[in-house]
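Submission sheet (multi-component)
Chains listed below:
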Amino acid sequence: MDSDIHDITLTVNGTTYNGRVESRLLLSDFLRHDLKLAGTHVGCEHGVCGACTVLLDGEPVRSCLMLAVQANTHAISTIEGLTSPGGDYHPLQQAMHDHHGLQCGYCTPGILMTMTAFLDENASPSEEEVREALSGNLCRCTGYQNIVDAVMTAAARMRS
Amino acid sequence: MSTRTFGQPVKRNEDRKLLTGQALFVDDVELPGMLHVAFLRSQVAHANIIGIDISRALQRPGVIAAYTADDLGDYWRHGPLLVPPPPIPGTIFNERTHVPLAKGKVRHVGEPLVIVIAESRYIAEDALDDIDVELEQLDAVVDLERALKAGSALVHDDVGSNVSARVRQTKGNYAAAAAKADRIIARRFHYEHGISSPIETRGVVAQWDQRASQMTIWDTTQAPVFVRNGLAAMLGLNERNVRVIAPFVGGGFGPKIMMFYPEEVLLPWVSMQLNRPVKWIEDRLEHFFATTHERGQIHDAEIALAADGRILGIKDVFLHDGGAYDPYGLTVPINSQCTLLGPYVVPNYDSTFTQVFTNLPIVTPYRGAGRQHGVFVMERLLDLAAHELDIDRAEIRRINLIPADAFPYNNEIIYQDFAPLSYDSGNYEPVLDMALNAIGYADFRQQQHEARAQGRHIGLGISCYVEGTGIGPYEGAKVQVQSNGKVSIATGIGTQGQGHFTVFAQIAAEQLGIDVTDIDVVTGDTDQFYWGAGTFASRGAVVAGNAVNEAAKVVRQKALKLASDLFECSEDDLVIADGKVSITGVPGKFVTLGDLAARANPMRGAVKPGTEPGLESTQYFGPPSGATANGVHAMIVEMDPRTFDLKILKYVVVHDCGTVINPMILTGQIHGGVAQGIGNAFFEKLAFDDQGQLLNASLADYLLPTSLDVPRMELDHTVTPSPLNPMGIKGAGEAGAIPVGPLFAQAIEDALDLKNKGVELLEIPLSPSRLFELTRKAKG
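Outcome: structure written.
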């Protein structure tokens, strides 16, 4: 089984980590249980719910559909890196708080990672575009309306 | 004076941890030496177990242990009956509760056969493939009607039939009413409900500390106190030696209150056997089988009417799919039976249900908890009556509403809380009027004509409902001022996103004149608060909220008394605000609550006899019966008549849940409920084949509503306080989800003019493919 072990090096939120992983180890399990970055949540482990979304070199990916070894040499961003070093909210975190965009909060990290990347690409989205971008993340609590409002507000605040 | 926060849209205290990835969920618990659990589950719905061989699994490197039912010894036993049947004369109830691991027979797909413990979850799952199981497959009981016919296979052989329960409740004399009726309308209705699918599945971590004789269990439960008491008894431990923590829980919606799930029972026992911490996290596939569902009912219902549209009586006979075991008693079908009556005067009622054992996962309450099924039947009967009697559908509802001067209104049958189904308060007609106004009912026919002329098919739906909420028995709360001036509140209920950390703080802030952000709320930790029932039936804010209020009131009195002693003045001259007690009209003369708390715990000297230390109080609240909320939903849809694709153009909710603590959080509860209602009404269906196999056990196949499916909602409310608690609160957690099914059916019929085409929509869900089938059938 030794041949199945890989040494990997990657950065998460700007910090470099070295890991020794089995080929089959999911990136989500590596982040959560090896690196103890448990803010990334796992909802379905088949790529549908979006709770485990992280950024790989700035692009949203499902960490449950990636192997840790595939992240070798790449830069990962997770929820733990979204606030400023001083602890200030990202504008989308602030807007989610202001608009009651979360209830149980379990899907929230995945939504924040997906939608912050979306706002980087589209600074002036329409509500329809926000709903389209959000449609890959399932939330069972909120009915989405307050999340959509939060994203629109965050976009407006980031523009001004 | 502090800004008043009660009743205001105060932002949530709990958000920061959740928004920054710092909130502790069960799967985030990491302990030294922790082992991981996987379950081998039955892949067939009904079979005799011939043999199970775990020997190869035990030889796999990294596997620590594996157990079958036979290996559990005396620990193997049936789970407790969680909710006994209400005292309704003539009730038949055959109690067959679930077991930790199947022994002799498996009764549904997903029932666990073997528990495997290994160094990692990956290894534990590898080892499942090493287990040899020999089963003798039996016919599966799936269809409710066939289940009751002679010759059907039996889920529990010793019961002698597949009847789990049978209950008849009556009010007045339906037969006599029907004899005098101008019109009787009878139909058969099918209503399916689905799986709650919280984004966090279930999970358990158990840690046995042998030196301390202490068991700690992290559990995604809605009812930590009952889990502690039950597990202590099962494990032979004192309750004080078992601590159950329900940390942040990622949604519940009912099934997480199903107690003594096999995994919940087995992990603590395994931890004691191995003297190691163990973790099990349900995967999504397991969630479809191992977590309880809510499913279908078949109603044969009839309504007796006067020519003017008044309801003379209703008769209903229905079958309820209970699944393989019935640990939750009769809660779901009783809710259906009671909630069917809705906001209407129904002078005569005759309702009988049979709860049927099937070889399908267990059915327990899921948001709405059977209320949807009853509301669907009543609202559809009224739609049929409006059509046949040529009465406007809003008017037939209006003339049957319980008048405002008739409360408390006794429906003369027994509710799920064992108390008579009596509505505490209500004023229903203004709610209907506001909803009609908001949806634009008066102008809609004109709008519909114009749309039709353009080739567009739009339709309107309107549904009324009541929701029994805030049932007992009781909850408690401890409110404590700390010497740093901050306030701590502890209560025994669990929390799954309802905003308890904020609304309970608002309640205490109202009494103690302190900022909401200076109040720390603890829920779901049995070492922090010992007593309680749990979070279910839209009762958290009502029952625990009132306990917080009572405790905060006592703390307020204690603070005033201490300050009056200190200042040697009358309590009447004191005011509590901004975290301090001040003498009215004497600027600068004050003492902070923190200082009073420190003074209430003297380190030396003597205290007066009877003095209790600390500025704190623990109080309990138990309502005499539940509080009844009500509401009206209205919707305009546009249908594509070829594809049956549906677009919701407008969605209105007007409701009344008594005094509102936090309108922002209330709105969130309604939004989320409606979203789940839409999923239920339009596409969520657990598709079983005739052998009890679930054909759509993934989120790629069992579709949950996305941000493209849930429309923007317009909300309004009236306030009719409940007389059953001092704050006048009624619950709101389930209101959004309850009336959506009949709303869809009515609006789709209206949009496609189905009534005039001989098509009646008497079932839920109504997916596009099902609508295609139903309309094609009508065309012949």
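Remark: Chain B has a mean pLDDT of 96.
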